[in-house]
Design goal:
single chain; about 575 residues; alpha+beta; Penicillin-binding protein 2a (Domain 2); Ribosomal Protein L30, Chain: A; Beta-lactamase; five-stranded mixed β-sheet; five-stranded antiparallel β-sheet; 21 helices
Length: about 575
């Protein structure tokens, strides 16, 4: 009986061992490997951003950083004191290091400082015997060679936040310190620039310390992104705006919609938001009258002033409210109801047609034209020119602006549209608002006669045959003749390009920020006499060359005063430079 019991027990044991080692061997082998092998993600390098000529706009550079492995030092505090003598650490950094050391295992590196200079790296290496547990690691840091000149356009990268993890399930986002695009091109094309994570199989011991790497799948670095932008033209645009206090400029291709410059001044340091900024710095940025955080080229909207007369003219011509030979006698003002609407010339311009009205920016002529066309016709023409709606540019933020209509006012205020309001809108005042990008698109569409769409990434959305605008060619010619007169004999005559064959056509604009009362007019008060925040905005839209338009430009100088003396010279310099560089010829 005992022998039978022993044989039975041995049989059960053998059967169990057979089941564990043979039948379920693969399963337990996998579980053992999971305890022994750790899978670790490898961060990819972010793709570079270059201009149309391959000049780097955003790239990765070596980032030397000092790390501390707590288990390799007898006293973390003593080591930090020794590091402090070589690389100064702020009190907040010291507290962060001590907090990270307490939270992590002893063999996990803790960041001390990053972006070390070569001199600091050398000093740490020389004093290595006195700095137990301190090591130098090499990583990537994002740099922007154009600095503030392209900060709004390119955006910035920053460490992944909790909301990012909720919206994006990419496993690479879980890597400590991994950064993603947060604004501008960096955000809009983050999926292309981010790349894909690699994978490393590492053998670890019971405490999780790495012993050796078993296999490795290298990460897929982000793709290079080529923009239509011209880096030299972008720098020139920013430099010209920097002569003023605040403003924006856009240069684009009349035929393709490619944007060669999109500048907003003032800019911000590209690495400003890479780390947490102080509340004091944030308050300064938010409260600044020049709004440095706003991309004024696409996110800023302004009353377009007299540049909007282009849309008013086309609306009246297309609806046959007036004919190309329409004339008006300007006496300096016009009375509508119980209100007087003034012209730029106190004594009037006399009898003027479209060409003279554009050349001398006669408000009275366009009051008449706007009244005849009506607000809804102006609204429809404006939409065709790219106003009152987002242009579709490949940036994450863009404001739509506004071109009012009867339906809009009824919905927004519950009130009906009043005929007198049409006069103000007809000269770009009242409720109408547009961004510099929209104004550049408007003048480009007028110059080329096609409904182009602006874009920043080279070759994207470019096509050979854009839809034609819903305006008769002869009506466009009437407007273009007026725009040529503006620069040859009108308000922008002094800003005209002098080089033969490169001349520009365009329209000046001065948009009121604060209305001037009749009492102020009688006393001779001008916008230039007011505080900076109350002065008029200066605007100019133009294209060149006149004979065969290829490039269009819009400039807005906040509180700059007069468009002919402030904005037009900036546009002249940009249109001259872009013609000399001629990026469209290489498209």
């Amino acid at each position: 009986m005992l022998g039978g019991l022993q044989v039975g027990m041995l049989g059960l044991l053998g059967a169990r061992m057979y089941g564990l080692q043979v039948l379920d061997g693969d399963r337990y082998q996998m579980l053992a490997d999971e305890n022994r092998i750790a899978l670790r993600l490898l961060a990819p390098s972010r793709g570079t951003i270059v201009d149309r000529d391959g000049i780097a706009l955003a790239r990765n550079e070596r980032n030397f950083r000092a790390v501390l492995v707590a288990e390799r030092t007898q006293s973390v505090e003593a080591t930090l004191d020794a590091v402090q003598a070589i690389v100064p650490l702020a009190e907040a950094e010291m507290q962060r290091v001590l907090r990270d050391v307490a939270r992590k295992r002893g063999f996990v590196p803790v960041l001390l400082r990053e972006n070390l200079s070569w001199a600091q790296v050398a000093a740490i290496e020389v004093h290595a015997p006195d700095l137990p547990g301190v090591a130098i690691e090499i990583g990537d840091v994002r740099t922007y060679p154009l600095g503030e000149a392209a900060s709004h356009l390119l955006g910035y990268v920053r460490a992944v936040s909790e909301p990012d993890l909720k919206d994006d399930r990419d496993p690479v986002l879980s890597l400590p310190g991994f950064k993603i695009g947060k604004d501008g091109i960096e955000r809009q094309h983050d999926g292309v620039l981010r790349g894909g994570a690699g994978l490393s199989e590492v053998e670890v011991n019971a405490t999780g310390r790495s012993i050796r790497e078993l296999s490795r799948q290298d990460p897929k670095d982000g793709a290079k992104l080529t923009l239509a932008l011209d880096a030299e033209l972008q720098k020139l645009a920013y430099a010209r705006l920097a002569a003023e206090k605040s403003g924006a400029a856009v240069v684009l291709d009349v035929r393709t919609g490619a944007i060669y410059a999109l500048a907003s001044f003032p800019g911000v340091a590209p690495d400003l938001f890479a780390h947490t900024i102080s509340s004091t710095m944030w308050d300064e940025l938010m409260q600044s009258a020049t709004t440095p955080l706003v991309n004024k080229a696409a996110d800023g909207v302004y009353a377009p002033g007299s540049t909007f007369k282009i849309a008013t003219a086309l609306a009246a011509l297309q609806t046959r409210a007036v004919e190309p030979d329409h004339t008006v006698v300007c006496t300096g003002s016009v009375t509508f109801g119980n209100r007087t609407f003034h012209c730029l010339s106190k004594h009037g311009h006399g009898r003027v047609g479209f060409t003279q009205a554009f050349a001398h920016s006669c408000n009275v002529f366009f009051y008449d034209v706007a009244s005849r066309a009506g607000i809804d016709a102006i609204h429809t023409a404006s939409l065709a020119l790219g106003l009152g709606q987002r242009t579709g540019i490949d940036l994450p933020h863009e404001r739509a602006g506004l071109v009012p209509s009867q339906a809009w006012k009824k919905k927004a205020t519950g009130d009906v549209w009043h005929a007198g309001e049409t006069l103000s809108v007809g000269i770009g005042q009242g409720d109408v608002r547009a961004s510099p990008l929209q104004l550049a698109l408007m003048i480009a569409r007028v110059a080329g006669g096609e409904a182009i769409v602006p874009h920043l990434v080279k070759d994207s959305a470019e096509q050979k045959a854009w839809p034609r605008l819903p305006f008769l060619p002869r009506h466009l010619d009437v407007v273009k003749a007026g725009l040529e007169a503006v620069c040859s004999s009108g308000t922008a005559m002094r800003a005209q390009i002098r080089e033969p064959g490169l001349q520009m056509a365009g329209k000046t604009g001065t948009a009121q920020v604060r209305a001037i009362s009749q009492e102020d007019r009688d006393e001779g008060v001008r916008s230039d006499d007011m505080d900076w925040e109350d002065r008029d905005h200066a605007l100019f839209v133009g294209y060149a060359p006149v004979a065969s338009p290829r490039y269009a430009c819009a400039v807005v100088v906040e509180h700059g005063g007069h468009g002919n003396t402030v904005a037009a010279p900036i546009a002249r310099d940009l249109l001259l430079e872009v013609q000399k560089r001629d990026p469209g010829a290489m498209a």
